[in-house]
Amino acid sequence: MEDYLNAVVSQLHQMYRTQSDAMEKTAKLLAETISLNQSIYIFGCSHSSIMAQEMFYRAGGFALINPIFAPGLTLETPPVSRTTRFERISGIAEAVLSESPIKPGDVLILCSISGRNIVPIEMAEYARRTGIISVALTSVAYAESVESRHSSGKRLHELTDLVLDCCSVPGDAVLEIEGLPVKTAATSTITSLALLHPVMARTIELLIEAGHAAPVFMSANVDQGDRHNARLLSEYRDQIHYM
C-alpha cells in the first residue's frame, strides 16, 4: 500500500514540475472560450470516460463542462469488453461528433491515457478540420512507448492544440507483486483528475478576475443546494448541453 501511494505522490510531483505551464495555458483557453459564449466538451473511451463523468454536474464543479458519451464506449453497459473493440473502429468519432452540439470555436478535451486508439485520434482530426480547439489529456510516456492503431501513425498528443500529460507510466499499473506475472494498481485516474480539477479552478479564477460570472454547482446534499443548482441549469441552458 505504501509503495502505491509513494508512486502516486511521485507522479503528482512530476506532473506539477512539468505541467504547470500547460495547465495555465489550458485554463486561459477555457476561460476565453466561456467568455466568448462558446462551449467546453470532454470525451473519453472506456476508463478514460471516468474523467468526463467526474467533471460534469458535480458538487463544486464548473457547470459549463459538457460530457460526450457514446454507446458502447463507456463502462456502464455490459459487456464492458465491447469498449476495447469499439474504441478501435474508424468512423465512430465523426458519427458521434457530427451528431453533437459541438461547433467551431468550442473546446474539446480528449482523454486517452495511451493515446493510441482510433476514436480519440479521429476526434482530434475532426476537431482540426472543423475549427474546434482540442486538448489532449494523455500520458506522453505511455503513448510514445506504443504504436498508434490509426492509419496515420499519429498518437493523440501529436494532433491536438494543447497537451496535458498525466505522467502515468506505460501500461498504467505501477506495482509488482511476487508471484503475479503482470503489474497491478493503475494511477491514471488519480493523476488525470489531479490535472483537471486545478485547471478548472484556475479557469473559474480567471473568469472572475475578468469580471465574468463563473457558475459552480453546490452539493445537492447541503441546504439550498437544489435551489442553487436549478438556477444555474436554467440561467446557463445555452451553454449546458447535457440536460
From TrEMBL:
Q: Per the UniProt record, which residue ranges are transmembrane?
A: none
**What are the SIS domain coordinates in residue numbering?**
30-209
Q: Which keywords, in A-to-Z order, does the entry hold?
A: Isomerase
Keyword Isomerase listed? The answer is: yes
Q: Give one GO molecular function term.
A: isomerase activity
Q: Which domain of life is it from?
A: Bacteria
**Pfam families linked to this entry:** SIS_2
Fetch the SUPFAM superfamilies from UniProt.
SIS domain
What start-end ranges are recorded for coiled-coil regions in this protein? none
- NCBIfam families per UniProt: PRK02947.1
Q: What is this protein called?
A: Sugar isomerase domain-containing protein
